[in-house]
Amino acid sequence: MERGGASGPLREEGCGIGRDLRESREGPRHVGGGEGESFEAGVVQVLGAAVGKKRGQKVQAGAKAQFGNVEPVAKAGREAVAGKKDVAGFGKAAGKREVGVVKGAADGDDLVAPIQIRLWVWWHLRYPGFVGEWARAGGMTRVDVTIRGAGIFGLSIAFACARRGARVRVIDPGGVGAGSSGGLVGALAPHVPEAWNDKKQFQLESLLMAEGWWGEVVSVSGLEPGHLRSGRLQPLADARAVEVARAREATAAVLWGDAAVWRVEAAPAGWGPLSPTGLVVRDTLTARLSPRMGLAALAAGVAALGGEVLRDGDEAGLVVDATGVAGLAALSSAVGRPAGGGVKGQAASLRFEAGNAPQIFVDALHVVPHADGTVAIGSTSENVWQDMATDAALEALIAKAVAAVPMLAGAEVVERWAGVRPRARSRAPMLGAWPGRAGWFVANGGFKIGFGMAPKVAEVMADLVLDGRDGVPEGFRVEASL
Ligand SMILES: Cc1cc2nc3c(=O)[nH]c(=O)nc-3n(C[C@H](O)[C@H](O)[C@H](O)COP(=O)(O)OP(=O)(O)OC[C@H]3O[C@@H](n4cnc5c(N)ncnc54)[C@H](O)[C@@H]3O)c2cc1C
Question: How many of the other CB atoms lie within 10 Å of CB of 206?
């Protein structure tokens, strides 16, 4: 049965098969039906994204509808969602009516008629908590959350949601790691411990939770993402740099507390950077992670938890758009103003066995030893570029790395890679509801620290999407970039 046109007849959705309703895409239309209205045996004409069901499911003859006076936000296709007029609260009485919806079931199941069930209402309609509750209670047999984008943000959010009992579907036409997450560097490096703000605090919390969070990924997936808090060395170029670094010893003690140290010490013999002063800053907060192994582990973890990672598929349930630069362009065009853009970066991987040695940061250059006997070098930062090729800028970066860390001289370059980082206009991550699009959320703007931010971004987004709990810092809100 097809939906009517802009003003054509429409079969009632969810109950009362056979009744034609007038539809206007501009205005609300009635889908719920009155309390006690009987279902006829027949095929449900529900919109999949609203309640996680497909058209074509069957309902039991004579089952009683328990809908309240539900009115949908009229939108085309899968964006249609149930709105509400006078629903007092989820699962509660609205006037004299109790509200609920038809429960989803597998195709061919006979009985999916309403029993004592809860109304699937979107978070933005101010009914927090119900999605997570329902998912955890096993009420959903299909997909609760669709995540677009299999980069570090999309897969981390998918993993966090799946771990909380939601059924997730990740869709990425390019496959896992097709975007900026599919690179080489994997430095989980903190901001300097001073001039504190929301972004630095969020990142600190994310870095501190990373070990346990990735440990959970390992235990669910059986795959190793190469996470290790191996620390970092930064050479100090002159007396002024030493003075600033020593001042940060004190601020780090306050801001990081017992969690990690930042201290000035003699440059080590062996693995380490050249230091004109003979001194370096060593911090014990910085970690490494293999980007590709991390993504593989997350994808396997999602699958182990009953989710799916697809190149193509339909959206169902709530939708999280984590599509990186493409998503920023789509959002910009949807809201009619620039929400962000991309910054190209080039990186390289050298064959060099540095074991678990600390990474090195010198003059904006990351040198990161990984567990597979390579050392990653990154990255260029280019606001303008012609294509995704690597070029002379990367060769200069490699030369700079060898000059800073002479032990790398002669190491074979095993891979050169380029990607485009998604940078929100605010330069901070962009998390929250997609403006004006019911049931859609945005997770974007990882920019240069997406991997470091991922564990906390994932949990904050799962809180928001599944439970309606909003822990998004002000500066990370979507509106902050619009
Ligand atoms: C050279 C370089 C070095 C970096 N080094 C570090 C580092 O050391 N540490 C760190 O923390 N961060 C680093 N970053 C930044 C980090 O990689 C990004 O912040 C992060 O990858 C962003 O992740 P994402 O999931 O938001 O985006 P992406 O990884 O770009 O993922 C977006 C995905 O969406 C998919 N997609 C696009 N359109 C659609 C659609 N319509 N439907 C479904 N899917 C779609 C794409 O195929 C892509 O896979 C680096 C980045 C670069 C380029």
Answer: 24
Q: Residue 332 pLDDT more than 90?
A: yes
Tell whether the torsion through CA atoms of 269, 274, 276 and 277 is positive or negative: negative
Give phi and psi for 31, each to the nearest 5: -120, -20
Kindly tell me the burial class for residue 201, based on how many C-beta atoms sit within 10 Å of its own C-beta (0-12, 13-18, 19 or more). middle
Nearest alpha-carbon partner for 152 in 210, 100, 71: 210
Exposure string of 104-135, with b = 16+ CB inside 10 Å and e = fewer, is: bbeeeeeebbbeebbbbbbbbbebbebbbbbb
pLDDT at residue 250 is higher than 90? yes
Residue ranges in 312-410 assigned as alpha helix (H)? 324-335, 392-404
Chain center to CA of 217: 15
Q: What does the DSSP 8-state code read for residue 260? A: -
CA of 448 to the centre of ligand 1 (A): 9
Q: Which two structure tokens, joined as six digits, stand for 310?
A: 């697809």
Question: pTM for the whole thing?
Answer: 0.76
Query: Residue 472: which pLDDT band, with cuts at 50, 70 and 90?
Result: very high
What's the full length of the chain, in residues? Answer: 482
> Which contiguous run of DSSP H or E holds residue 408?
none
Distance, CA 267 to ligand 1 centroid (Å)? 34
CB-CB contact of 106 with 70 (8 Å)? no
Q: Are 97 and 37 in contact (CB under 8 A)?
A: no
Residue pair 273/235 in contact by the 8 Å Cβ criterion? yes
Residue nearest to atom 52 of ligand 1 (CA): 345
Radius of gyration of the chain (CA): 26
CB 204 within 8 A of CB 254: no
Tell me if 108 sits within 8 A of 144, measured CB to CB: no
pLDDT at 67 over 60: no
Residue 180: CB within 6 Å of ligand 1? yes
How many alpha carbons lie under 13 Å from residue 432 in its C-beta half-sphere? 19
pLDDT tops 60 at residue 341: yes
Distance 400 CA to ligand 1 centre (A): 25
Domain architecture of the chain: domains with CATH? 2-116 (no CATH), 145-481 (3.50.50.60)
**Which are the contacts of 217, defined by CB distance < 8 A and separation ≥ 6?**
159, 223, 225, 294, 297, 298, 301
CA angle 110, 115, 118 (to 5 degrees): 120
Tell me the Ramachandran region of residue 21: left when phi exceeds 0, alpha when psi lies from -120 to 50, beta otherwise: beta
Average pLDDT over residues 193-204: 94
The answer, yes or no, to whether any atom of ligand 1 lies below 6 A from the CB of 152, is yes
